[in-house]
Design a protein that fits this description.
Blueprint: H1 24-39, H2 46-73, H3 78-83, E1 87-91, H4 92-96, E2 105-111, H5 117-130, E3 135-141, E4 148-153, E5 156-164, H6 187-205, H7 209-225, H8 238-251, H9 257-270, H10 323-344, E6 365-373, H11 376-400, E7 405-414, E8 422-432, H12 447-457, E9 468-475, H13 499-506, H14 516-524, H15 528-539, H16 554-561, H17 578-582, H18 604-609, H19 622-640, H20 652-658
Biased composition (Low complexity): 568-581
Biased composition (Polar residues): 536-563
GO cellular component, one term: nucleus
Length: 694
């Protein structure tokens, strides 16, 4: 039993759930896990590591020369020119040591107060980099939430940020973890600095950095394999996963990587969102920058999965998460928890945890977003813009169907090699909300939603002729063959293998009888003229040079005509199994499709020629929905901030249950009833590993 005098160090805002270290079986599983990660190619070679160091050295010299040049041009003394300096920091996966082969390097350049971002960084330094021989794919993004310059230097991807601090001379040993670095800077500079400040805090707040790194490398790889690694799509990005893993390390400070991975899924399978995950208490300083606080900021009450950064000003790093993407991640956490339990019982091995998610077998209906451009460079710019807005399509569908139609955006892009134009496609799975009674034959009309999304996409400032977008509804048997690794559709697995998919199809309230054949006849009845109109309105941005009145060039027509939906039994695809045909869905995009392009019809073409039934029972006024959400949010906030300060436990019972560690036998696993901001009300350790705490 631990005495008060030799109490262990507390790394987080609560006591650990368990202080016990590994047994022999845990060490063996850790060795097997590390071997698997190595064989999976997650570690870069010594040569690539050396090349990264060389590139960072060259970039550091470039920014130092750049600042000296500007100092001289602005008439400062020779001594000032001599002392002028810029310091390069790294953050993200490279700073944490969990980057893999081909990963980019997140870098921050800190310069003096007289060197600004708008002109000096994005114009002068941009020009210097553009003339540097080894720099390619240079892309400034000045209007981003965190302004960044992206490029490749000697083949290595670099994301370069800039922060101008309130110093005339930047010392070589500048410590940006100190709060004084934030004096007299704007919010864009604060966001730029916080990447490095957060990385430094994570390193400081985890008990064992090496164990943290191995567990994080493992879970990032798992997230990518299971399709839940993408901040821009509404899932979690690198910093989010790092913060979650760091919190688990705090709860199990003596655990080895295999234990941390297992405990990760156990913790976040039971976490009660939107209770926040925090590595330390939220501190408010006198600098006046806004911090995450649902008591004061109404917008913070709408966050579904708050993961709070540990450096001032503390912010929610996962504000992109929606109800749909949270649902998907919780399902994947359940999967991970089940596999880890089987691994601990020696029923399976680590490769089973990293089996890729069979996205195109999980749903009956999908939205296909086709993006095309004249060449690869235009596609890179156009795709970046569209991808950054895809999350909005998910949110709009949730909004317009009152959460009844759920979206699963898949953060992987696909390309059709048969196209003459540069092309890529993204997909979203569609399903009805589980447990909600629905009327037979009920359909969702999201034509207006898609039109609104397209209108926003077409506002792209740097649009060029040839940049086109099409959004179409495809059924599972119509998914194009190029999305499959082998280039053809695999035979459908037996029903017991695809149990999760069957559950989604039957238990979510989807009717067994579908109007599929009726819709097919209605789509076939759309005339040729209507098809042309639909093709233009669904794929072409609204620009005068590309309007229907002005006609289109041969190249534009060639690109537009290539936006075709792959037939169910052509292009290398195998016919759908009888199972798939018999269980036709009725969760559909309730709008006719152009039979030439596969794009969703919109505008007058739909209103004149479509008799597809629309949703009529969604009559709840928007204001009523907002009022209901507000009441729910207020209830959550009242529970969340029931204590005097954020980060403390929500009830004395939770704190008392955590203090019962002393009554446990020395060699018994510690479970505990609840921890960490009230997020875990249940025991975390499996029954065969602990003695229940009364």
């Amino acid at each position: 039993m631990a005495s008060g005098s030799d109490a262990p160090k507390q790394y987080g805002i609560t006591k650990p759930l368990s202080l016990l270290g590994p047994v022999e079986a845990d060490l063996q599983r850790t060795e097997e896990l590390e071997k698997f990660l190595l064989e999976s190619g997650l570690y870069e070679s010594p040569d690539e590591s050396a090349r990264r160091e060389e590139v960072l050295g060259k970039l550091d010299q470039i920014v130092k020369d750049w600042v000296k040049q500007l100092t001289s041009q602005r008439g400062y003394t020779d001594q000032m020119v001599e002392e002028a300096n810029a310091v390069l920091f790294t953050f993200g996966s490279y700073r944490l040591g969990v980057h893999g082969p081909g990963a980019d390097i997140d870098t921050l350049c800190v310069g003096p107060s007289y060197v600004n971002r708008e002109e000096d960084f994005f114009i002068v330094l941009h020009g210097i980099l553009a003339q540097t021989e080894d720099v390619t794919e240079l892309q400034p993004v000045p209007d981003a939430h965190v302004p960044v310059m992206k490029f490749k230097f000697h083949g290595i991807s670099i994301d370069l940020l800039y922060a101008s601090v309130s110093l005339l001379v930047v010392p070589a040993d500048l410590d940006i973890s100190q709060g004084s670095v934030l004096y007299d800077v704007d919010e864009a500079t604060v966001r730029s600095l916080n990447g490095c400040r957060v990385a430094d805090q994570i390193i400081r707040l985890v008990p064992n950095f090496e164990n943290f790194r191995t567990a994080l490398r493992c879970l990032k790889y798992w997230a990518k394999r299971r399709g839940v690694y993408s901040n821009v799509t509404g899932f979690l990005g690198g910093v989010n996963w790092a913060l979650l893993v760091a919190r688990v390390c705090q709860l199990y400070p003596n655990a080895v990587p295999s234990m941390l991975v297992s405990r990760f899924f156990r913790v976040f399978t039971q976490w009660q969102w939107p209770n926040p995950v925090m590595l330390c208490s939220i501190e408010e300083e006198e600098l006046g920058f806004p911090v995450w606080d649902p008591r004061k900021n109404p917008r913070d009450r709408c966050h579904h999965m708050p993961i709070i950064t540990p450096a001032y000003p503390c912010m929610n790093s996962s504000y992109n998460v929606s109800t749909s993407t949270l649902r998907v991640m919780l399902e994947q956490f359940q999967f991970g928890n089940r596999i880890c339990q089987e691994i601990e019982m020696n029923k399976t091995s680590w490769p089973a945890l990293f089996e890729p998610f069979q996205f195109f077998e999980a749903y009956k209906n999908y939205l296909q977003v086709d993006i095309i451009a004249e060449d690869d460079e235009d596609l890179r710019l156009w795709k970046g813009w569209v991808e950054s807005r895809l999350r909005q399509l998910t949110l709009k569908i949730e909004r317009d169907t009152y959460g009844m139609l759920q979206c699963h955006p898949y953060p992987h892009e696909y390309a059709d090699p048969s196209r003459q134009c540069a092309h890529c496609a993204f997909f979203m799975g569609l399903s009805r909300k589980e447990g909600v009674k629905i009327q037979e034959g009920q359909q969702f009309d999201i034509r207006g939603t898609v039109d609104e999304f397209r209108h926003e996409i077409n506002m792209y400032m740097f649009w060029k002729p040839g940049m086109e977008l099409a959004v179409s509804h495809v059924r599972r048997k119509q998914v194009p063959a190029y999305v499959f690794p082998e280039g053809y559709k695999r035979p459908r697995p037996s029903r017991h293998v695809n149990h999760q998919s069957d559950k989604n199809d039957t238990e979510d309230g989807t009717a067994t009888r579908s109007p599929d054949s009726q819709l097919k006849r209605k789509h076939d009845s759309v005339g040729t003229d209507d098809i042309r109109y639909a093709k233009r309105s669904s794929t072409s941005p609204v620009h005068p040079k590309n309007s229907p009145q002005s006609g289109s060039t041969g190249d534009e027509t060639r690109c537009n005509n290539q936006i075709k939906r792959a037939p169910s039994d052509a292009s290398g695809g195998s016919p759908a199994s009888p199972q798939a045909s018999e269980r036709s869905p009725d969760t559909i995009l309730s709008a006719p499709r152009c039979t030439t392009t596969g794009a969703v019809c919109s505008g007058d073409a739909i209103s004149k020629h479509s008799s597809v039934p629309l949703v009529e029972n969604c009559t709840t006024p928007t204001v009523a929905v907002c009022t209901t959400l507000k009441r729910v949010a207020e209830k959550v906030v009242s529970e969340l901030v029931g204590s005097e300060r954020l980060g403390s436990n929500n009830s004395a019972e939770l704190l008392e249950s955590m203090e019962k560690e002393d009554v446990l036998a020395e060699n018994v696993r510690f479970g505990g009833n609840g921890v960490a901001q009230g997020g875990l009300p249940e025991e975390l350790e499996p029954n065969n590993r602990i003695e229940a705490v009364s």
